[in-house]
């Protein structure tokens, strides 16, 4: 008997991200084609789960979905379109994940069936998680309806829900089988939600693509005025950069390095402190501002470049500080947040900073005193280049 | 804006299956070496979860584990060794999965920490599931303690728990980071548990390896008499064949073909009907007997070869029929089971049959009348070659 067997294999994932307008209008061939091209021996079932916030703003959507699939023989739409709470609410208990699993059982949905989630990042995360664990994985289609979900979370491979106040404490890595980005959904977002998703584009531009950063700078006013063509390109390029990153190295994050978490260590803390009153993208803008100023204070980044980042956020209508990040004497929330992030990563602390516009650099320690100094500068609105 | 982005990437998994005796004896270097070779920047934590049935038969095991890790600086054993119910009980509610997730939270176990499960296939399935979803995946080590878990489920990539009476209704595909097969655990199994694990070896031999089948035939008496050397080889070869199969094609079962489920469609039904009184391996022996006789009745397999299979099970002390599979007038449990399996697979029904010893063949339909005829033959103990 040999004392050891070495096992090794790879699993390949492929999925397309489609960009369209009016996904469920009768003339739009995309979804119909998707199902007919994938048709195997049996017609698969399709369960649609819809974000309540989206349903409210698009009252005839459910009917349109029924109409759309009526003449599509390659897929069998389940009559019940499931409405679930939107926003962090759906992730804060497992009630809705349970409802989906129960529906999977009741409708006899199998591993060759599909579950489509239509909604913001929170609904995609929760429905994606339910889809990943029911029958050890039902094919999952994402239709993101916010800027953030269309340019970031919707193309990603992570899902999950919260547990006793801890973000994404349970979840899996499991890619969708397709993503459909429909820009018409964005029309019903309020201004805060519209703006907040842009910070993920600023993030990925800052660490990977100077030209894209300059493009965002040049189009900041039109983004603020909600120009759809400009937003289309922003989402497309941001999605592309995210996707390249995921495919490039360590898609399931077995290592410690998580470059796409630039600006996120303090953002997570702020979201949590605010009870998710501060939107993810707003918190990320503040987190990026903090790590950008820190990069300047520690002589990695030219102060003029740091100032460009702050100016851009202001033009976009995004915050760069929040009172909840003020110290109150004893332990500073930012230092607590840093420790929590270290614990969350496990192993070694790895944080992305900037050494130029478009050039991220990873470090393994932050200097606490200078973190607080960066925060104080943001709070006071100090002009970095003065 | 281009209307589509095509995403593609692969995720590679590597893990070793170690064969040893006395994993936690002070002289055994395996586990110590495992952790010191993998040491990164921070010392990882290790949570051990132990099958209550194993703990009962190995009362000093917990103490030995503490002793073993006392002088291992490359890993930080968490003081609490968690005892969980053994057998199907642990899979029939999510209570114990919740307990593990709660422990992950309480002990600050992160994605670079380890959760080790020591136990039968049921405990490995439930602990593996908890490990896969907590923090989107904590490194999972398996120490299987039954024949079935050492030669089959322990090396696999599947985990899960049951849901409203349905086997493995929630779960994930997620490989362990290492498997340690310790043959001393097998000494405390009762004769039924010992014998039942052998049927998975017969299964994989029948569909893939005629020489291995002949080896099992030649060693059936010694297996029955619980000869450890013979069992060591049986487990090693069976594990090897399972691992090759998993690595060879479609490890996460995206398609419909599941050759390793030979004999399992009726086995699942029988386990369920018996409230899991019939052991998995016993049910599999019966399921294999059924599909073997069916293969003969449908002229795929020589009746003499079918008879060899039945004779082998009898020599090994394994059943080839169970009264719960008798018809009772209206719907026959086997026909119900077949429909449930079809639904479970989704898409196309795919069932493995035999066209020779060591040569499986997939079919997409079973003839109901001949399924019942095969069952009747087994019930009456008909001699196939007479
Ligand atoms: N999985 C990942 O990789 C990943 C990455 C980043 C963020 N996230 C998660 O995404 C979530 C945030 O997602 P989000 O920013 O998309 O917001 P959200 O999902 O929290 O939604 C915010 C609100 O907008 C509503 N809404 C959604 N679409 C709408 C539309 N078209 N019109 C009007 N209202 C609409 C929702 O009902 C909700 O009330 C967080 O839970 C975050 O953790 C996940
Ligand atoms: N994940 C997979 O790929 C896969 C494959 C096959 C089977 N399974 C699952 O495995 C389970 C069956 O596993 P099993 O056959 O190992 O039995 P088991 O886990 O059900 O255990 C049976 C009993 O034996 C006890 N036990 C375990 N080890 C012992 C030892 N060394 N000495 C004395 N008692 C011991 C347990 O406490 C339990 O009471 C089923 O739930 C089945 O679905 C999973
Ligand atoms: Zn983000
Ligand atoms: Zn089995």
Residues in β-strands, percent of chain A: 15-25%
Look at the helices and sheets of chain A and give the structural class: alpha/beta
> How does the major sheet of chain A shape up?
7 strands, parallel
CATH architecture identity of the largest domain in chain A: Up-down Bundle
Task: Tell me how many strands of chain A there are.
Answer: 11
Top CATH class of the largest domain in chain A: Mainly Alpha
Fourth-tier CATH superfamily name of the largest domain in chain A: Dehydroquinate synthase-like - alpha domain
* The CATH topology of the largest domain in chain A: Dehydroquinate synthase-like, alpha domain
CA-based gyration radius of chain A: 22 Å
Largest interface: A-B, 70 and 70 residues
Question: What is the overall pLDDT average of chain A?
Answer: 94
User: What is the string of helix and strand elements of chain A?
Assistant: EHEHHEEHHEHEHEEEHHHHHHHHHEEH
Distance between the termini of chain A: 74 Å
The kinds of small molecule bound in this structure are: nicotinamide-adenine-dinucleotide, zinc ion
Oligomer: homodimer
Q: Regions of chain A with pLDDT < 50 over 5+ consecutive residues?
A: none
Total number of distinct structural domains of chain A: 2
């Amino acid at each position: 008997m040999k004392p050891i067997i070495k096992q090794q294999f790879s699993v390949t994932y492929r999925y397309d991200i489609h960009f369209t307008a009016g996904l469920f209008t009768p003339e739009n061939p995309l979804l119909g084609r998707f199902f007919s091209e994938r048709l195997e021996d049996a017609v698969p079932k399709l369960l649609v789960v819809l974000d309540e916030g989206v349903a409210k703003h698009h009252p005839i959507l459910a009917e349109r979905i029924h109409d759309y699939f009526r003449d599509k023989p390659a897929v069998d739409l389940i009559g019940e379109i499931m409405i679930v709470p939107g926003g962090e609410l759906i992730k804060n208990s497992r009630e809705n994940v349970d409802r989906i699993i129960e529906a999977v059982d009741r409708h006899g949905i199998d591993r060759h069936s599909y579950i489509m989630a239509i909604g913001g990042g929170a609904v995609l995360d929760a429905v994606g998680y339910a889809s990943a664990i029911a029958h050890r994985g039902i094919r999952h289609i994402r239709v993101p309806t916010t800027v953030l979900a269309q340019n970031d979370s919707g193309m990603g491979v992570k899902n999950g829900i919260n547990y006793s106040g801890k973000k994404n404490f349970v979840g899996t890595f499991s890619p969708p089988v397709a993503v459909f980005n429909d820009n018409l959904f964005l029309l019903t977002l309020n201004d805060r939600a519209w703006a907040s998703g842009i910070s993920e584009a600023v993030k990925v531009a800052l660490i990977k693509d100077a030209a894209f950063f300059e493009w965002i700078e040049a189009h900041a006013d039109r983004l603020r005025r909600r120009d759809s063509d400009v937003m289309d390109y922003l989402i497309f390029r941001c999605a592309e950069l995210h996707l390249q990153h995921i495919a490039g190295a360590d898609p399931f994050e077995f290592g410690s390095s998580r470059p796409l978490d630039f600006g996120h260590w303090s953002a997570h803390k702020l979201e949590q402190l605010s009870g998710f009153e501060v939107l993810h993208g707003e918190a990320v803008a503040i987190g990026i501002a903090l790590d950008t100023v820190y990069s300047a204070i520690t002589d990695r980044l030219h102060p003029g470049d740091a100032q460009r980042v702050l100016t851009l956020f202001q033009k976009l209508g995004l915050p760069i500080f929040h009172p909840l990040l003020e110290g109150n004497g004893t332990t500073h929330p930012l230092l607590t947040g840093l420790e929590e992030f270290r614990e969350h990563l496990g192993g070694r602390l790895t944080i992305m900073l900037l050494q130029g516009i478009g050039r991220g650099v990873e470090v393994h320690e932050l200097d606490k005193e200078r973190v607080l100094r960066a925060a104080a500068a943001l709070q006071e609105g100090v002009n970095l280049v003065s």
